[in-house]
Amino acid sequence: MTRFTVYDTTLRDGAQRQGISFSVSDKLKITQRLDAFGIDYIEGGWPGSNPKDIEYFRKIRHIELEHSKVSAFGSTRRAGIRVQDDLNIQALLAADTSVVTIFGKSWDFHVTEAVGTTLEENLAMIADTVAYLKEKGREVIYDAEHFFDGYRFNPVYALATIQAAEAAGADLLVLCDTNGGLMPFTLQDVLQDVQSVIRAPLGLHAHDDAGTAVANSIIAAKMGASQIQGTINGYGERCGNANLCTIIPNLQLKLNMLIVHPERLEELTTISRFVAELANLSPQEQHPYVGANAFAHKGGIHVDAVLKHAHTYEHIEPELVGNKRRILISELSGKSNVLYQVRESNFDLTRDTPATQLVLEKIKELEYQGYQFEGAEASFELLVWKTLKAYQPMFELLGIRTIVEKRGENGQIISEATVKVRIGNQEYLTAGEGNGPVHALDQALRKALEQVYPELKNLHLVDYKVRVLDGNNGTGARVRVLIETRDERRKKSWGTVGVSPNIIEASWQALVDSVEYGLVCIDKAKMKELRKTVREFRSEG
After folding, report:
1. What is the radius of gyration, based on Cα positions, of the chain?
2. CA 306 to chain centre
3. 514 vs 98, 238, 464, 502, 507, CA distance in Å?
4. What is the pTM of this model?
5. Which of 46, 73, 92, 130 is most open to solvent, judged by the fewest CB atoms within 10 Å of its CB?
6. Domains annotated on the chain, with CATH
């Protein structure tokens, strides 16, 4: 029986998404990460198409992989020439991979209109290429491009193309939904027809233009397909490819198919974010299994049920795929939301503690003003400390000033800021420059605080977002600013929030929260003192 395999094409098909351009270094890192995860096949690229892929294949042959096979991708020979004379075929051999993936035309319309050759010559191109590569000792995967469209218009010819590849010795025949419009019920009918005449192992390569790529892939696996092709995060041209971050856990956790070792499956969320970072794209929060919102709960009734039994609103344990449960704080929150959050922050409050009601009322008051604590967990913790009178600010603001100046008609815009703060009995007046007023404020504040808190040098702003809350008020609208800060030494990140009709004031609120929270986390004695004060407040309550 043929073993089921997963084939990743992130480095080639996934890179066709707008905005993605992996460097050779990126491709090598992703290859090694996917290999350690347990992906069976990794499509490295098309060596006949560009110098970057040629360099990738030159370097990857010197890297020892534990599990994965790297495949070089290319087309069948061109019409009217011998296969051994085709430079693209020779480039595939020069890539020196054990596996070669060849695509050929299945749709008669494409053969005559796009390639401009006869139906008979197209069959010969497929057979000649597969046979030649097999003679050279390669494992050959044949991708039947546009197979389902071809089958719809001319089923006899579409079958003839994969029969030609099978007869020539292809190790695997992959049916491609290249245009991405395949419906699951159509897939079932076509796959049954193909399985009745083809004996070689079959695979599926699905695009997501109709939103059915994952469903089609799961159905194909259920019906006996030997391989599923896809990309990490569903990256790909147009609407993307079948998302392996959804397919793999579905097959393993729902269909009980062993795709990767269970301990490796716990790395799935990390891999999703790792590839997103190298692609320079923000992770999609709504993605199943690996998204930040996949196990996020907001409504108070839902949260109350989840705290009693997680399966009431979660279809799996988030830890199985390396994700985690998140309880969001908003105007929809009940006491259960607050209890969960304070427990996550190691605060010891109960449903009947008066402090819990105080925190909830404060949250709802701020939410009414436009604050949002989803993604701003650090501001939430500071809010709890301040509401329970457990927190004493680590510095006092005496004043800030920002100047934005443009000199000359085509001159550069310059941002300057001054900050005056008091730390203990000492006042500090510092100035900073930046590429914007918020950056300048950050620089000025740091100059003051680093004189007393040198640990601040390890904290860096990594993200800054602005959201207009009431657009009908035009430039006078209130704005919400979200800042993400990272402690490079401790490898920890946190979010903070500020709201004001003045974008500088909103930014300052979020900036101060980010700095104060970071300093508290560094100061273990301060954190211990805060928790003691909260416990005393609870006891008095």
Report:
1. 29
2. 26
3. 51, 38, 12, 19, 11
4. 0.72
5. 46
6. 5-260 (3.20.20.70), 360-394+458-541 (3.30.160.340), 395-452 (3.30.160.270)
